[in-house]
Amino acid sequence: MTNVSARAYRTLDWLGSVPQIAIPVYQRDYRWSQETCLQLLKDVRAIAWADAGRSHFIGSILSSADGDGALTLVDGQQRVTTLMLMLAAIRDLSSGVDDEISRVAAQLILRPGGGQTRLRPHERHLQVADRLLLGRPAELGRTTLEQNYTFFLDQLTDWRLAWDGLQRLEHVSIELGHLANAQQIFESLNATGAALSDDELIHNYIHMGRPHDEQVKVERDIWAPIEVATQGATREFWRDYLVLTSGSQPDFTGDFGVYRVFRSAYPDPLHDVTPEVGAEWVRLARRYEVLLNPEREPDPGVRGQLRLLQSFGTAPRPLLMGIYDDYCQGSLERESLVEICEMLQSLLIRRALVNLGRDLSIIGTLCRERGSGRNPLNRMVRLTPEDPRVRLALTHSALPQAGYVLRRLQSVDPNLTDLQVEHIYPQTPRADWSSDGVSRWGDLTTQEQADFRTLLNTIGNLTLLEAHLNAGASNSSFRQKARYYAQSQVPETRALADRSTWGAPEIRERTTRMIEQFLSTWARPAAVPMDEPEDMVRAVDLSRPSSPADPDIFEYVVFEDEIWGDVHRVRPFFERLCRTLWKRDPERFLSTESGSQLVSRGKVQGVRYIDLAPGAFLYSNWWPNYLLSAAQDFITAFGLEDSVRVKLAEAADSPKVVEQDLDDESMVSRDV
After folding, report:
1. Which residue spans within 240-341 are E strands per DSSP?
2. Which of 140, 77, 132, 79 lies closest to 110 in space, CA to CA?
């Protein structure tokens, strides 16, 4: 006996034979657009005009038996619901004109015996669906169900033709046995029709397989509050939640990457998704709601920080969600939250400035720091470019996220919302453009023009200006622009109007001043060196050395925020790593393959051991290539892949780096 049976039906015959078709709680909402409804209507009209004997196939409908002939739809909700809306419109349009068509259409909509509709949608849509399908649509609202019913009322001027076409629709009904894997079949069928999003697949995954009453409870207590809080950004919430809680950098690449990572984190949703887990999801979703809408945070200082961090798009949200939750629960002081937010801005804007903006796997590293009970601030500092490098970039490079930077530097009134980034020396100067009212752009030498162009996008040549004033200033000469600057509500811009000239010397002078202001606004402790990404290599990415010798191959090792400056060879690295990890968690240490080499008896003469504790010795009489492999296993077992890095020395037999293609999210750059 198989767990799946399939049979072809004329669709209206099938509707008439099923006493009830229930939409389970785990299904997504009805969301067919009017464009999709129009395509179905075109297909119905086309088949009505086709030669006798022809039919139109609308695909497969997947269901499971509910008893007494009733069915629960697993796949096909959008088509079945739309057909019911079309039948309701035909019933209402034909009433009093062709009562037989109206009567048959009504019979297809109603359960045998009347009183209820065959289609039983989600409880939250039941009242609207009943009004439409029972023929009582007194006032039509703005739900998708009501909009599509109205669409059919307007379009079906040829309702007789549409009725004939509906008689010729066919589909395959697939019914599942009680042992069938409904989720797996559902996902494979989702390759056709309107594709599900990651969050919709997660929704199905945590509901499917539960009794109906339990589905209703999960929907009411967990899923609905999450959807309300995340306001259309539900997929982004789940992605950021998984970064926050995974303890590693999740791989979201490929189709349905977020859903795939979620399934890996919760392999048995019926047991893994407990009320406690659901409560955490809802709590963090409500924190996420404030990240999306900082105005809902009552504290002005915290609200200002959250608003500023919105300039970096989605990148910082996983960490922000965690530290903001810590603050709301009272485990993080307000001053500490503000300090972390300020340092996070310094980290992101400085890295963007020196072209490290794509290295956003660091957010996952910082989330792991927080999850381990450590303040992520120290790690942030080590990942933040130092002042000399930033000063050089600000002097010669284009300013990233210029609107965000200038707003902070120029202390702009938050109520000014129509500001644009203005290039004081214009991007496309006309031949008669002048910086001083005397010399003209067309008269400058090629070298002088090139000098201006190198300064065009640097911080000293940028300011903020209201949109209407910017349109007037355009690419006029500096003295003409100054009239518009004088009208600005931005003090720094207004002050520019007092200048008589705007040439390369003025740009360089302003750049120098603004660089110092930048470095103090986005400050970084100078005493802490930066982990240079091009110099620091993850220990887990090293291949094993080819020689049995153990030469000096490391300049130093960084373990989290600690520098092991005296570790230059594989063996000392392995020994120090083992002692450190043993102190942190002996039980986890022992659970690893290499940790199983621990012995409690006395040492054997001539054999090398590492003393971990009184009576506990770790066999380490291996060549360096095996020691490095064992070290990498320990690092992975403790989830420290991004936290143990080495600075390689210039040595002939240094381990090579195993190349990996990281798929980092691009930093979102938003101007004002």
Report:
1. none
2. 132
Q: Which helix (H) or strand (E) is 57 found in, with range?
A: strand 56-67
Provide the 10 A C-beta neighbour count for residue 231: 13
Pairwise CA distance, residues 488 & 350, whole Å: 29
User: Residue 72 contacts by C-beta under 8 Å, 6 or more apart in sequence?
Assistant: 21, 22, 23, 24, 63, 64, 65, 66
CA-only gyration radius of the chain, Å: 33
Distance CA 640, CA 634 (A): 9
Helix (H, G, I), strand (E, B) or coil at 166: helix
* Sequential DSSP letters for 82-111: HHHHHHHHHHHHHTTT-HHHHHHHHHHHBP
> Taking Cα atoms as reference points, which of 555, 525, 511, 559 lies closest to residue 385?
525
For 624-670, how does the pLDDT look when each residue is reduced to its tens digit (9 = 90+)? Answer: 888 998 999 999 999 898 889 888 875 444 455 544 333 333 333 33
> What does the alpha-carbon distance between residue 71 and residue 66 come to, in Å, rounded to a whole number?
5
DSSP symbol at 544: P
pTM: 0.65
Residues composing the chain: 672
Whether 15 has a pLDDT exceeding 90, the answer reads: yes
Q: How many CB atoms lie within 10 A of CB 65?
A: 13
Cα separation of 206 and 72, whole Å? 17
Query: What is the C-alpha to C-alpha distance for residues 641 and 645, in angstroms, rounded to an integer?
Result: 8
pLDDT digits (tens, 9 = 90+) for 22-47: 888 777 778 899 999 999 999 999 99
Q: In what order do the strands lie in the sheet with 616-619?
A: 598-599, 616-619, 609-613
Hey, what are 116's tokens? 């209820």
Q: What letter does residue 461 receive in the DSSP assignment?
A: G
| pLDDT > 60? residue 277 | yes
Residue 601 to residue 593: CA distance in whole angstroms: 19
Side-chain half-sphere of 420: how many Cα atoms within 13 Å? Answer: 13
Q: Are 644 and 539 in contact (CB under 8 A)?
A: yes
